[in-house]
Structure formats: structure tokens, C-alpha cells
Design a protein that fits this description.
48% of the residues lie in helices and 8% in strands. It has 226 residues and is an alpha+beta fold. The chain has 2 domains: 7-85, Glutaredoxin, CATH 3.40.30.10; 92-208, Glutathione S-transferase Yfyf (Class Pi), Chain A, domain 2 (Up-down Bundle).
Length: 226
Amino acid sequence: MADKLPTLVIGSKSWSSWSLRPWLLMRQMGLPFEEVVIPLRMPHSGEAIARYSPTGKVPVLIDGGLVVPDSLAIAEYLADRHPSLAVWPRDLRARAIARAVSAEMHSGFQALRQNCPMDINATGLKPTDPALIEADVRRIVASWLDCRARFGAGGPFLFGEFSAADAMYAPVVSRIVSYDIDLGASGDSNGVARRYVETISDLPALADWRASAAREPQVSALPASL
């Protein structure tokens, strides 16, 4: 009898930026899984999430009897569960920096979270307060340029090959596109960050996510987390 596939419980694909991260990581790593999508911004969304998540939040990975909430914790679990896959870069130094920039993403960039909520298929959006996001965008661009310069020789991603760090920043890429954020004004003088945005945007897996999001029922926009 075949082992039961792990289940990834996620929120609406239009808005759930945290859900996008492990979903994209698992797709890019070729890891099969079942998905449960819980519509957000509905009267019973919280109750539905609580059936799966001890934290009351998505995403949650359920693998056998193990329940792993939180996108970064899921990435670390997958790295341990599948050591043959480069969930994190194989090089020690690159791996340390990949984890560092992912942790920074996980805990930082509050202004971007609040002023540019993710709406994956939207274009022409405007930040609530453009001035407030400038420092966050500048730091993100600087981080991307540094990763690409030091560790990106092996491919088009932050550390050459796709890794969990790219999954962590995929929702930021979507915001840059949706809000038409000028990266050149934030230090991307040679277009390296813009090309990285194009690389992530062109992933077939991300196109699949967007297509699913387009089929979701639309409700009034509310602030969403990064």
C-alpha cells in the first residue's frame, strides 16, 4: 500500500502570501502533496483553519501524524525530510546566507506588508503610502543583489539553483509586479533585481497558482500579511 501523501493546508491563493511559500517550494522541488484550500475573508474562515492548525493560521503541512505550521518551519522540515534535495543551498556559506535572508523576510519588512497587501493577479495597484515602503524595497534590492553577486553563478535564482530563499521572496516579487514598484530607484542600477523578478514571475508553477487564484470567488479587499 502506498504511503499517504502529505497535505498542505493553505489559504486563498489570491491573498495568502504565506501559503504561497511552501506550496511553491514543494512544487519546485518535485514533492507530491495534496492541498486543502481554505477560503479567506469569509465568516467561518477562522473556524475552518482551526480544524487543521494549532496556531489558527495557514499554511500547515500535515505529514502522517505530524502537523507543522508556519512557512519557514515547513521549509526546514522538508530540508530534513528530503536531504537529497537542495531545499537550501548545498554550499555552507550560501546556505547560511539563504537562511539569514529568509529569516529576515519572515520577521521583517512590516511597512511593505501593511502598505502593499498581496493580490496575486492584480496590476496597477498603488501602495497605501509609497514613502513608507522605500526603506524596505531598498533593503530587499540590496539583499538580492548581494546574493546574486556572491552565490548566483550557477543559475538565475538568488543562490543559483532554486531554493527555499526564492520561495520566501516569491510573494514580494508578486507585489513588485502588482504595485509596479520601481526597483531602479531603490538601487537596481544594472537591472539584476528586475531580471530576478522576471525569473520568478515566469515560473510555470507560479502560473498555475495564479490560474487557480483567478478561479476563486472575489470578496472585498482587506489588509493581508506578507
